[in-house]
């Protein structure tokens, strides 16, 4: 086995650039996942590594050996395609032995075949036919076939797509264990973030034909390089914000930001597990219906947050460093309209299309970190949806001016649709300046 280095690979089809200088480095014995949305160029990159496509520029090396101009059969690259694609008329053993040298002694071939079947947990299955196997077993035979000639690198091209959901997790585990036992250097191509994060040692996030970040799964999740990566890898609630001195001011108050040294107008990205929801303390003011003139735009029957200042301009003007103030009627839509997502298909995006966002900072306390300052009422919203997943639950909360926040709670959520909740934030938040 050997490491893989892809340097500045460029590829165009009919004049359209699909790869625009893609670089990837995978250490020997390491498992890398190339993660990106459909059409970003993942399969093209894989085919160039395998030698099925020729790069217009750039290079591919396996260990010390540059293979950019070599045909596939001279590269020592094994591939596991999307569907196992076993030869239906050949036994499992003959499928696995297919890529082994023709002239090799029989005993050598069959011992290597048995060794590889053992690696993938299918010892004794050699005489079966492919149709006698489950989808997951077929995928493992395809992996054994790819491993048999001892390739420098094994490429997995979305190999779990054809498996049903319940089987997928198990087969992923089996495949990961098998390649680790074999000491293989692996590149998995996938658009499934859960698959990439759970299987890989290194996640390489691809966007528009380039790798934009390559790091451990934990690093990519905790320190995404831009808003596009933050929303593509894991769920994120994105809110307009203004940052100064390491504090980002947004509709949820003044939040301590991770020390990325960036300030100005932009966005905070919160992970749903950072968002805390608590029932508002019962107080004298609670329960007083909001006057009609201050009713929310969406017409929800909101209560006045206990002790919070009314949503009038004078209470919200934070001067040059805070986001523009707004009243219930006159929303400042903040920096750049609504999309600075950087081209990745975001998921779990907190801001509803066309909703108001930006101002509304209720912190009059001038605090200097997360925790919403001092003396200010916590921002509130009403629970719009609760989704229970067993191990956790997702709670969608709509704030007064239509901003949507999603929170994750461990186990069942203690909230119900219609509940008023106070919204807090745990730990520092990511801040990204607006593009341009
Ligand atoms: N042989 C080809 N001829 C012309 N265009 C191609 C060819 N192969 C790929 N493309 C185009 O290149 C772009 C990237 O395709 P590619 O299959 O690499 O993306 P992908 O990220 O793997 O997407 P998916 O996850 O949907 O498979 C697409 O727009 C595709 O239509």
UniProtKB/TrEMBL annotation:
InterPro entries documented for this protein: AAA+_ATPase, ABC_SmlMolc_Importer, ABC_transporter-like_ATP-bd, ABC_transporter-like_CS, Mo/tungstate-bd_C_term_dom, P-loop_NTPase, Transp-assoc_OB_typ2
UniProt cross-references to Gene3D superfamilies, sorted A to Z: P-loop containing nucleotide triphosphate hydrolases
Key word Amino-acid biosynthesis present: no
UniProt cross-references to PROSITE patterns, sorted A to Z: ABC_TRANSPORTER_1, ABC_TRANSPORTER_2
Transmembrane segments: none
Residues forming coiled coils: none
Residue segments, region Disordered: 283-376
Segments forming domain ABC transporter: 4-233
Family matches, as PANTHER family: SPERMIDINE/PUTRESCINE IMPORT ATP-BINDING PROTEIN POTA, SPERMIDINE_PUTRESCINE IMPORT ATP-BINDING PROTEIN POTA
Name the record gives this protein: ABC transporter ATP-binding protein
Source organism of the structure: Nonomuraea mangrovi
